[in-house]
Design a protein that fits this description.
Layout (H helix, E strand, L loop, with lengths): L6 E5 L2 E5 L33 H9 L15 H39 L4 H24 L1
Antiparallel strand pairs: 1-2
Helix pairs in contact: 1-2
């Protein structure tokens, strides 16, 4: 007998039984576990012990005022939220440093332009020095 909602598909010489599609939101069970049986391997911990790095992040994001106030066990959601906030702060700091570095480069390029310095003139001077050194080395070998 076929279970309710099952269909028979004919594929050439043999027929295959396929159950009806599972409705959205219905729980799916992996093989090896019975429905309603939740093993210890799938349990989500309610609390985590924060590492020293996590404690510093919790302080930097102002979740706690001092290291002594941080409890031994913290909810994982709090650590995730603190890490995300720290990640955003680091991005803002990097954006600020990049913009300030651009202004520094612009200012130094303007000063170099006032002194009539350019990469082309530096390259030509460096190659002229190399030619002089090569010529003096050749003269030293000739003697």
């Amino acid at each position: 007998m076929l279970p309710a909602g099952a269909r028979v598909l004919s594929l050439g010489l043999r027929s295959v039984t396929r159950s009806a599609p599972r409705p959205r939101g219905a729980p799916g069970y992996c093989s090896g576990t019975a429905p309603g049986d939740h093993g210890d391997g799938h349990r989500v911990p309610a609390q985590l012990k924060p590492s020293q790095f996590d404690k510093r992040i919790l302080l930097w994001t102002r979740r706690f005022k001092s290291m002594e106030e941080i409890p031994a066990w913290v909810p994982p959601e709090m650590i995730d939220a603190a890490r995300n906030k720290a990640r955003v702060k680091v991005c803002y700091i990097m954006i600020g440093l990049t913009i300030s570095a651009c202004f520094v480069v612009i200012a130094s390029a303007k000063k170099a332009a006032e002194r009539h310095e350019s990469l082309t003139s530096w390259n030509l001077a460096k190659k002229a020095r190399w030619r002089e050194e090569a010529a003096s080395a050749a003269q030293a070998k000739a003697k």
